[in-house]
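**User:**
Make up any protein.

**Assistant:**
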Amino acid sequence: MSLIERYGGKDAKDDLIRGLSTGELSHRFEVIREYTGHVGGRNIIGNTLGTIFFLPWIIVGAIFVIVSFFIIFNPHGESEAPFFLGCCTLILGSGAAMIGITAVKGSVEEVTNPDDYEKYEVTVYFNRHEKYIAEVKVILDATDKSIIGDITFVEEISLSSKSEIFCSYQPGSDGAVRPDYNYFIVSHGDVSITLDNHNYLNDKNRMKIAEKWSERLGVKIREPLKSTTFGGLTF
């Protein structure tokens, strides 16, 4: 099945599909964002570091469990304090050991039996004339050679008065181990496409960037502009 047969139905979309298929993209389409990524395959360094990090959890957890049994089953007179202490260390030790075992098992399985490797490129195209924006994924390399070159429309929006620009703010961790992230997104109903991302921003600079995207795409800015995402929850 051709791309036109699979995804066709809108003039701007059909033009984009033809351009992607032939390699001759219309000048009406501009690239807003592009990045590459991959899934699957062996991540030797990451899995090795993960194993080194979680092995002490198993060792320390096992020590806590062994000590707990000595405390619980050792005679301690009429006092129940040692018994409760042993129960607490047993729970903590068992929990730490289970976390460690699960993490190490996952790391080992990713090395010995990895998921199929897939490298992809994601590009966001914008047609100002048609007010059409689309996020497209192209497979660059893969274990399954038959899918190399496959093109998928991840999301697409025909922009209108109902479309909005907003900023999804994800606060960083203490000590700047992980920085703040500000993702500028265009949404229409329940469909969203990420346009840009920045690290540390104050409210003034955040609004300036939103205004730039609002003018470029011809859509309004959501009130309030910023929504905070933390631990998978949005506030």
In short: The radius of gyration is 26 Å. The mean pLDDT is 85. The chain has five helices and nine strands.
